[in-house]
Amino acid sequence: MGGECVLSDSGQEAPRSTWFLQGWKASRMFLIKGSVAGGAVYLVYDQELLGPSDKSQAALQKAGEVVPPAMYQFSQYVCQQTGLQIPQLPAPPKIDFPIRDSWNAGIMTVMSALSVAPSKAREYSKEGWEYVKARTK
């Protein structure tokens, strides 16, 4: 049973163990990517980033306070372990805009586009029909 062969894509015989390994590699990558995506969804849910905007804004401020020191510590660790000298990066820009206002503006834009979509579709299809009629004469 171990010596059986299957045809590969090129038409040559390939052992079943090779076929199994290729399937395993593909499924392993799928599992890794699925785990990363699942972890990201869990993190967003756990931090309540899709909840009220005040919680999202607080999480953004918390990340702004935590990430720069963590990056500095990591760069120092890399320098210690490898002996490399990493140049000092400029300070990150301060992002201070109300998320609530931009979120609401985005929602208003999408809703207004959806509300005029049927009339615009009718208008564009009428123009298209007139163009086709004019070209077929």
From TrEMBL:
It comes from the Eukaryota. The keyword Membrane applies. It holds the Pfam family QIL1. It is found in: Mitochondrion inner membrane. InterPro entries: Mic13 (IPR026769). It is a single-pass membrane protein. GO terms for biological process: cristae formation. One of its GO terms (cellular component) is mitochondrial crista junction. Keywords: Membrane, Mitochondrion, Mitochondrion inner membrane, Transmembrane, Transmembrane helix. Its main location: mitochondrion. Belongs to the MICOS complex subunit Mic13 family. Component of the MICOS complex, a large protein complex of the mitochondrial inner membrane that plays crucial roles in the maintenance of crista junctions, inner membrane architecture, and formation of contact sites to the outer membrane. Component of the mitochondrial contact site and cristae organizing system (MICOS) complex. PANTHER family: MICOS COMPLEX SUBUNIT MIC13. This is MICOS complex subunit MIC13. The gene is MICOS13.
